[in-house]
Inverse folding.
């Protein structure tokens, strides 16, 4: 790809599930990219997806998708345990990668992918889409400006009540099910965005359900110097899903932080200031636009969510699972 003259990146969509559907539909709101191909394990599934999303090409295998010479970047929306295989496939083909969270199910797998991406000298990023929402960008600006002083505490939670389905993705250990990888990574990543991804101490507990995966958990991430984050995740428990950031001069509240349409800044006794950013898209368009910008600029990583940070976040999740004695069958 000649980034000096190219104005758009061509996306290939790997996977045809719910998350791939939402991401692909959001590409209509992106100025610097468009989906030109989709790949699935069956041609029937890929063709149906392509017709629904008005995507020109449909492939009945992931190998055919990554071999398409016109595809610049692959969005990977397959289940967690398959990420290492599918990212490797894309990287070996020289394609840039945006991979859904969690990047991999453990740090060992991600270390391999990072090494491969750097060896191939191609762009790779974890799809932590919430960091690119305008309301979350505004929150980072407020913190960097010192609006709430020195940040001391973060509280974030994301959880929902799913129906009992032992074979479904959320509760099946063979598919990397459980709250931590599916929901919990969001509050953990949110805390990392504020404090960094290197807590000095982690204390956590989880409810391990009948299928052997964590149905909900809570964790205290201690960063030292009086700084800490309390994070909670659940797939069988409906939570409030808000985030709070407390500093020495005030606090920030983000209702339903995962989807963040607004954020409120409260500085001491001053009148609260609310930043509102309603949108037409689901919200994935912002990360897609940034990925396109970085690829066209010849960059290999995103400073907003670097590969090293993604690796450190996965290491946090690994430590938490270690405290619970939770290991997936395929590990």
């Amino acid at each position: 790809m000649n980034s000096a003259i190219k104005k758009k990146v061509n996306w290939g969509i790997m996977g045809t599930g719910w998350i791939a559907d939402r991401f692909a539909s959001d590409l209509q709101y992106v100025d610097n990219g468009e989906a030109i191909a989709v790949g699935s394990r069956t041609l029937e599934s890929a063709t149906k997806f392509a017709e629904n999303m008005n995507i020109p090409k449909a492939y009945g295998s992931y190998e055919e998708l990554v071999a398409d010479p016109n595809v610049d970047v692959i969005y990977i929306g397959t289940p967690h345990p398959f990420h290492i295989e599918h990212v490797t496939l894309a990287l070996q083909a020289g394609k840039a990668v945006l991979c859904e969270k969690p990047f991999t199910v453990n740090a060992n797998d991600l270390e391999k992918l990072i090494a491969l991406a750097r060896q191939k000298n191609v762009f790779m990023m974890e799809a932590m889409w919430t960091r690119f929402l305008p309301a979350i960008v505004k929150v980072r600006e407020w913190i960097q400006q010192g609006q709430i002083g020195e940040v001391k505490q973060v509280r974030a939670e994301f959880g929902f009540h799913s129906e009992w389905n032992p074979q479904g993705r959320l509760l099946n250990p063979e598919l990397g099910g459980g709250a931590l990888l599916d929901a919990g990574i969001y509050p953990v990543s949110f805390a990392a965005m504020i404090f960094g991804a290197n807590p000095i101490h982690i204390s956590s507990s989880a409810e391990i359900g009948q299928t052997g995966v964590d149905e909900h958990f809570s964790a205290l991430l201690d960063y030292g110097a009086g700084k800490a984050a309390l994070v909670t995740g659940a797939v069988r428990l409906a939570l409030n899903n808000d985030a709070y950031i407390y500093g020495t001069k005030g606090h920030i509240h983000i209702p339903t932080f995962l989807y963040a349409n607004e954020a409120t800044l409260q500085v001491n006794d001053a009148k609260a200031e609310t930043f509102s950013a309603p949108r037409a898209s689901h919200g994935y368009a912002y990360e897609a636009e940034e990925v396109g910008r970085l690829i066209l600029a010849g960059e290999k990583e995103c400073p907003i969510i670097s590969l090293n940070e993604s690796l450190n976040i996965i290491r946090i999740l690994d430590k938490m699972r270690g405290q619970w004695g939770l290991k997936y069958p395929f590990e």
